[in-house]
């Protein structure tokens, strides 16, 4: 969970920061297919339909990165 906290801090630390810096897909080790059962669709950072609040660019609902966080 440390990585998730770091992601929040890097993203600006506050909700609604429009120019918040996001991780690049390379920094986040993003991939279009998950290594296990966790997918972006089930991540609390996923933003429908194809983006993420902490990772740049287009994000597939079936993708995954190292900042995955379970939806509470
Ligand atoms: S796993 Fe979560 S944090 Fe990572 S790219 Fe997908 S939605 Fe974003």
How would you explain this protein's 3D organization?
It is built from 1 helix and 2 strands. It has a two-stranded antiparallel ribbon. The model has no long low-confidence stretch (mean pLDDT 84). The two termini are 13 Å apart. The chain has a single domain, classed as High potential iron-sulphur protein (High-Potential Iron-Sulfur Protein, Chain A). A hairpin with a 3-residue loop joins strand 1 and strand 2 (51-52). It is mostly loops. The structure holds iron/sulfur cluster.
Give the bound compounds.
Answer: iron/sulfur cluster
Number of domains: 1
Strand residue percentage:
5-15%
Main sheet characteristics: 2 strands, antiparallel
The CATH superfamily is identified as High potential iron-sulphur protein
C-alpha Rg, in Å?
Answer: 11 Å
Please give the share of residues in helix. 10-25%
Number of helices: 1
From the structure above, extract its key features.
72 residues; little secondary structure; High-Potential Iron-Sulfur Protein, Chain A; two-stranded antiparallel sheet; 6% strand; binds iron/sulfur cluster
Q: TL;DR?
A:
This protein is mostly loops and 72 residues long. The protein is 12% helix and 6% strand. The structure holds iron/sulfur cluster.
List the helices and strands and how they pair.
Elements: H1 2-10, E1 46-47, E2 51-52
Antiparallel strand pairs: 1-2
The structure holds iron/sulfur cluster (SF4).
